[in-house]
Specification:
The protein is an alpha/beta fold and 162 residues long. It has a single domain, classed as Rossmann fold (3-Layer(aba) Sandwich). The chain has 6 helices and 5 strands; from the N terminus they run βαβαβαβαβαα. The protein has a 5-stranded parallel sheet with strand order 3-2-1-4-5, sandwiched between helices. Helix 2 crosses helix 6. Bound molecules: 4'-phosphopantetheine.
Length: 162
């Protein structure tokens, strides 16, 4: 937090696709930060199901109406992106103890590389704690209905494009 009380935070992820769990973290994060940047990793080595533009478009639609949330994308190191955007915090959601180990490693690594950036964790709401993009993708690929697990923007995208 700055001396004037403002806080720019980055919520990074693959968002392939955004889930209701992500959206919950975004809404709660937007109440803590004065400006929340949802930053989609443009990772060419991972094979995403949705293109970067599709992921950003679905995010934009899902967060429409939340004034202090911006959708952006980044390449390279997260801490470099955070520095460029003058973000003092990285926001991450934790669903279960199984997330903790990786998240702890990432947070330590990021803090060693850029001590000025703190990682803030929010516990995922219980009702979303079983939802992951990885499993949603599997259900989509196998032809299942994921509409109860994802924002309407994703369900609509799937109806029109798949
Ligand atoms: O939604 P995800 O896939 O769990 O998000 C992972 C993400 C994007 C936060 C992480 O892979 C990341 O920060 N990648 C950028 C590269 C980087 O900075 N790596 C070092 C810290 S892990």
């Amino acid at each position: 937090m700055s001396t004037d009380g403002s806080l720019i935070a980055v919520y990074p992820g693959s968002f392939d696709p955004i889930t209701n769990g992500h959206l919950d973290i975004i809404k709660r994060g937007a109440r803590l930060a004065s400006h929340l940047i949802v930053a989609v990793l443009n990772n060419t080595s991972k094979q995403p199901l949705f293109t970067l533009e599709e992921r950003k478009a679905m995010l934009r639609e899902a967060v429409a109406g939340i004034d202090n949330v911006e959708i952006d994308s980044f390449d390279g190191l997260l801490v470099d992106y955070a520095a460029k955007r003058e973000a003092k915090a990285i926001l991450r959601g934790i669903r279960a103890i199984s997330d903790y180990e990786t998240e702890m490693q990432m947070a330590h690594l990021n803090r060693h590389m850029r001590p000025e950036t703190e990682t803030i964790f929010l516990l995922a709401a219980e009702k979303y704690s079983f939802i992951s993009s990885r499993m949603i993708k599997e259900v989509i690929k196998l032809g299942g209905d994921v509409s109860q697990f994802v924002p309407a923007a994703v369900a609509a995208h799937l109806r029109f494009n798949r």
